[in-house]
Amino acid sequence: MPDELASSVGDGEDDERLSKDVIFELLKNRRRREVLAYLLEAEETVTLGELAEQIAAWENDTDVNALSSDQRKRVYVALYQTHLPKMDDAGIVEYDQDRGLISLSDNADLLMMYLDTESHQQDRWDRWYGALSAIGAVLVGGAFLGAPVLSAIPTIGLAGAILVALCGLSITHAVANRKQERTVDGKLDRIE
What we know:
The protein has a 3-stranded antiparallel sheet with strand order 1-3-2. It is mainly alpha-helical. Helix 4 packs across helix 5 and helix 7 runs antiparallel to helix 9. The chain is built from 9 helices and 3 strands; from the N terminus they run H-H-H-E-H-H-E-E-H-H-H-H. It has 2 domains: about 20-115, Orthogonal Bundle (Arc Repressor Mutant, subunit A), CATH 1.10.10; about 125-190. The two termini are about 15 Å apart. It is about 65% helix and about 5% strand.
C-alpha cells in the first residue's frame, strides 16, 4: 500500500487528487479517523504528545490524567511510526516529525466529507420552514379571530406576505443547495 499511496498522491504541489482506494485506506483505521477529528476540533497545529494522549484517552475510555505511560507510549509510537507519516504522504496532514507538530493539510477536506462531524452536518432547513409555517398560522389565526392589529390587514394581503416569505425562503434554500453541490462536486473531482 505505501507505493500505491505515494503514486496516487502525485509528485507536484499542484496535484491535489487522491484515489478512492487511498481515501478509504486512510479512513479504515480508527486512529487515523481520531487524528482527523482531533485536528478538526483543535483548528490549529498540535503536538504529537497531546494528540497521542487524547487518542489514548479515547481508546481507553478515560481521562488524559488517568492514562498509564504504557497506554500513552503505545499510541505515540503507532502515530509516530505509521499513521502520521502515511497521512503526511497523502497530503492529509502536515507532519513535522523532527519537531512533533501536526496540522491539517489542504487534502484533509477530501476525507472530512466522509466523516460524521458536527461542523460538516447539513443545515437544518426544516427548522426555517417550520418556523415560517408557525408564524403564518399564528398571523392568519389571529386575523380570523379578530386580533386588533391583524384584523386591520386584509386576509389576502396577509396570505400574500406569507407566500412571498415562503418563496424567498425556497429560493434561498435552492441557492444554498446549489452552492453546496458545487463544493461537493469540486471535492469529488479531486478524487480519482
